[in-house]
Model the fold of this input.
Amino acid sequence: MKENLLAALPEIVLALGAMSMMMLGVFYKATAQGRMSTVARGSSVLIIIALAALSYTVGMKGSFFNNMFVMDGFALFIKAVLIFSAGMVLIMSNHYLEKNSEKIGFEYPILIMLSLCGMLMMVSANSLLSLYMSLELQSLSLYVLAAIRRDDSKASEAGVKYFVLGALASGIMLYGISLIYGFSGTVGLDELKQIISGSTELGNGMIIGLVLLVCGLCFKISAAPFHMWTPDVYEGVPTPVTAYFAIVPKLAVAAFLVRLLFDTFGSFVGQWQDIVIIISILSMSVGAFAGIWQQNIKRLLAYSSIANMGYALVGIAAFNESGVQALLIFMVIYMLSSIVIFAVILNIDVRDSDGEKGLEKIEHLNGFAKNNPITGMLIALVMFSMIGLPFPPFAGFFGKFFIFKSAIESDLYGLAVIGVIASVVAAYYYLRIVKVMYFDELGKNIRVNLDLEAHSKLIILMATLVSLFIFVYPGKFLEYAAYAAHNIF
Amino acid sequence: MENMPILSITIFLPIIGALAILLMARGEEEAIRKNVRHTALITTITTFLCSLGILFNFDSSATGYQFVEKAAWVEGYNIDYHLGIDGISLTMILLTTILMPLCVLTSWRLQNRIKEYMICFLLMEGIIIGVFAALDIVLFYLFFEAVLIPMFLIIGIWGGDNRVYAAFKFFLYTLIGSVLLLVAILYMYNYAGTTSIPELTKILPNLPLGVEKWLWLALFASFAVKVPMWPFHTWLPDAHVQAPTAGSVILAGVLLKLGAYGFLRFSLPMLPEASHHFQSMIFVLSLVAIVYTSMVAFAQYDMKKLIAYSSVAHMGFVTMAIFTFNHQGLDGAIFQMISHGIVSGALFLCVGVVYERMHTREIARFGGLTAIMPKFAIFFMIFTMGSVGLPTTSGFVGEFLTFMAVFKVNYIMAAIAASGVVLGAIYMLWLYRKTMFGEIKEECKTMRDLNGRELICLSVLSIGVIVLGLYPNMIFRLIDVPVETIIQQVSR
Done:
């Protein structure tokens, strides 16, 4: 029993922590702002404690809670990254939260903790049942997060849209699970693997079940053709929520996808590989082409994340150990870059004839680098890194390098070529951000004010330094990723 | 001296200079400008001295790479921080370090965002030296791609009216070539298990011809855009016309050489069979470049565009010479690269001189400049002659060797290529006559002759043109051994 609890310690810390913060928020007598900052700080501390609790699971390998929950090096790596990045997002939202504490309830940090708890459980899910439960815990928290600005019609619309489509995807997934259950008689991944190991080919029922399950998961990581919700939701919801959506949940779902396809259905790679390849190509192309016309920076980042999920899926399609490793490397590097860019966006206030608001339109960044040389340079470097150019400190090049290396290892040359060409197309919109910041003149009648508060500065510095470390001295980081990948393959 | 990492120092000195400028304290505008300029000049000159140090310690009779530095970079993956040079890289590094201080001098009076400007140039210098010194193919790719960033910013921020279009065209065009190179690199890495260039040169020629051809084409996509070869050259006139003077100098002087260097370092030694297979294709493309772009150059009314097209034609000689696979050819190609680097750089400087005074580059608006700018007229004459390929200038040696080499392979091709020289003479002399002789145009009368800085820049380059023309052996002595090595590798 003790072992079981230890294996799930970070999840337990987060769940209990979320409850206690909820109580604190309800009974704590203070102004909205005071309550918000107390709860937010408390939650940040709890997330750090969860990270510390994770250290108890180092070296654990095996399944717990009657085979519902698995813990290994792979899960450990992903969980560490998830907790770290969720903490980062929470801390960098501070500025926005305190300024808008009247409009955003104190539930924001609590929901982040709950969804994080769901994601951690999902990474460890070893049964379709525990997968579904953890996925719903995560998704329901995210639906509420999306609609947290009740006064804002756009945000509410985005929330409803996300909820309806997300519920549909969950339904599809549940149907897939029920088919798999019906045809195999089990929901546990280990038993499932044993049952199907006898046959050389999956039956039709299992195939349909698997496809539906994969579709549902692809919805959650916003891979094309299940990406429709992403731009609207990213645009509508408050920026800290966008940051959270873009940075954290996808890694968790991708991790489960890897576990499902590589471990459980690994011997049937011939039957699922084409699906992943097609989804990956679609995501890369949709993300690259559709991003070109965007005027809203959050929509642009939405398409960018669709394209990036396409690259991550290349690692899965490659179906080899370096593919998993590349996926982890790629996602971590993407995450670090996104943290920097969102930390900057969250701290920009735009004042024009309509009053003051956050950064929305790309053209608001006109001439940005003139008044903010260092921050401008940082954003430009992130953009170059997202293109995949090898320029320190951001290591986007290594992400793509290892992703395509895994594809080449599996002889997927076409996929690699399509991928690099899509990255050239996407380069256009990343360059456009550099262009408005550096080549264009300052906009008239508009004041763009960047006020980086200490927390955000710290986070940007940390993310940049970690990226730089990965760039200059990739060996150690690759070793961790290889260790994690080795566990799953 | 033996154990000093002199190559790393030469690469990182300009980069450190750029960082120093970045971190320079805020203060009074004019004082900052002065500091920035001086820091940039001192850094580039020190870098030049470093490269001279390399030259003096270089053993031109030794085979293989010298000043080799190796340190593990991506541990466990055989990707190293591996530097080393042979004679070919050395001449290219020298070309870069000579041109850079001149670029800084040319931009001395720049007002607009000089800090970022100098940072871009210094970064670019470090990166370009890195390209020539890299002995690891991933490291090479890193530098090869990174050079896009400063050049993109230079064209986009300090360029002419249509700078955004030109910057994007330049960037996306070159990027699509280089990503295919990345795929090829990944294939090589996966096949050979190493990224070291000397190792790959040993392993890759064993590939079956079918695979070699694909790899060769991927490499070609990248290098042909960089050179640029016809029909991938269309980014070049735009980029040149819009770029500021110093940007054009570096673009024509050094960046175009990256492509030719790539052919010499990768395509020929690593994929010899495919290189032979595609020889005729390269010949045809080069011939079209020589004849067609020379004619296009003749139709230009913008001086910079004319010189840009002449660059394409001259680089056509280079690619043609490289793919003759004989000693004269490679000697001629490398010499032509150096000579073109100096001459076209100088021509762009000359255009910059008149542009600064008249704010136009339209040929028709100039006339009779010999009378009012005699010093300028002399220098412009020297470089025009260098571009035409008159004996005693550096242009002659490269072209002459090229024709000799091509003649050995195919005399019809050589005859057609030789017509390019005539065409070159036509448009260059026409340009000279239109701008320098004839009636003095009314608006030209107020133009001043060269000032001190311009005089320094142009004299350094004109000395280069004439000395190389009279004593080409100083280059051949350096590149003799590596050229012989490449020929052996390609004729396996």
